[in-house]
Amino acid sequence: MDIDRVAGEEVCCLDAELLQLPEVSSSVLKENPQLAEDLFSQWISLSDTSRLVKTLIDDAKAGNPINIPGSSTNASAGGVNSLPSMFPAGSAPPISPRSSSGSPCTSKQKTSPSSLGSPLKLVREPVREVIPQFYFQNGRPAASELKENCLSRINHLFRNDLDGLLIDEFKPVTKIVCKLPSFFSYALFRKIDVDCTGIVTRDAFVKYWVDSNMLTLDVATQIFNILKQPDCKYLTQSDFKPILRELLATHSGLEFLQNTPEFQERYAETVIYRIFYYINRSGNGCLTLRELKRGNLIDAMNHADEEDDINKVIRYFSYEHFYVIYCKFWELDTDHDFLIDKENLVRYGNHALTYRIVDRIFSQVPRKFTSNVEGKMCYEDFVYFMLSEEDKSSEPSLEYWFKCLDLDGNGVLTPNELQYFYEEQLHRIECMAQEPVLFEDILCQIVDMIAPEREDYITLRDLKGCKLSGNVFNILFNLNKFVAFESRDPFLIRQEREEPTLTEWDRFAHREYIRLSMEEDVEDVSNGSAEVWDESFEAPF
């Protein structure tokens, strides 16, 4: 490389600080720029300087680290410049004192090339930051401590059974190692024992639970993976049947159903329908992992596993709730073909509903029937209807009845649509010799309760944002609840204040179960007294 050519190109932009001449004052060089150029030309022509520059260039080309002698730090620390000097020893002029602050040269050293200790400019490679892995296809691997603790528990449970565990012996593994409800034991066992050998070995369990990183997943994801079918991204109703069969077989609060398998089946169906009613918000029968995580099903399952009284698990699993739903359906299904029609449903709640709203239900606007029989509603359809009717404060119920009232399906309720349903309600009020309430007054009352964004129509969002939305539906098509709302039963008001955590459905199911139980007790007493009378009557003979 031509050193002279380099000197000629760089001298025009030479900074006096780059010369690193402690023997010469920088102020003198700045006042005489020609002197700085002459000094640099002499310095660059020295043989030592030429060798140094060539060495630096060769190191830079080879990618070797560049060690630059004579840096400003070394000069200030040792007072000696290792670069070749143009002045003989002892003949250098004195150095003028420098201020430690206020000098533009001093502040410039932090970012200027002078801090490199050489007129050559260095280009440093950017530091590459290593981003840790954040996505794992099979889940994040378990920490070593967590994995060791899990393996220790596994070894303890499998130590006496070297050949593996049978399905009846697998429940401690489900509870202690997996920390899942005990009624998941059968489903988990079958998930591991894919060949149906009837035995799960230690190695097979470790492969499924530890090696596949099931250990590190959250509980909802673990349950989702255990219940779903292979290569399926959602849960169906049939996926819940194995855990409910085991719940019925093992839970102490359901032992009384052991001799009535038909009611066991109905109970399991009712629990599944309730789960999908509240959690499957899309309503397509395909329960996704996101919906499972957003719901409260996991807490309810843990509660059912820990609580001996199944009726205290009011979310999904209460037998009393099932009893109320099933008895209501049985009362309406007069021919007991497990299907009900319009005339049957009109009798619900002592003829509380209007014909117009029943027609909308059977037009399958709010929900398509699963009965596959024209003009008939099956038990599953009735469960959805009853949960919506008795708790109009829940989001599924609001969506159900909003679709019924939205005659043109445009997503808003207009005054004309509200009036259409209230006309029959008004006629029924007049037939009962009650003082009629004009629709204009009802409309003002509804607008005051809902406080919609626009007064000319009501949206589903308006209804979900108001706690009194359920009363709007009762005003329009449920006469009994409309009258109860107008009368403001103080007992119900006090009950709501004392038990704010209970929903409308919880309160209704509790009252209805007591009523049905009392009716059954009276019937039993009547039958019993008749038997006693018969025995006493026949005794003398």
TrEMBL record:
UniProt biased composition (Low complexity): 88-104
InterPro entries: EF-hand-dom_pair (IPR011992), EF-hand_13 (IPR041534), EF_Hand_1_Ca_BS (IPR018247), EF_hand_dom (IPR002048)
Domain of life: Eukaryota
Biased composition (Polar residues): 105-117
Gene3D superfamilies: 1.10.238.220, 1.10.238.230, EF-hand (1.10.238.10)
Keyword Repressor on entry: no
Residues covered by the EF-hand domain: 393-428
Region: Disordered, residue numbers: 63-119
Entry keyword set: Calcium, Metal-binding, Repeat
Keyword Membrane: no
GO terms, molecular function: calcium ion binding; protein phosphatase regulator activity
Any one GO CC term of the record: protein phosphatase type 2A complex
Protein name per the record: EF-hand domain-containing protein
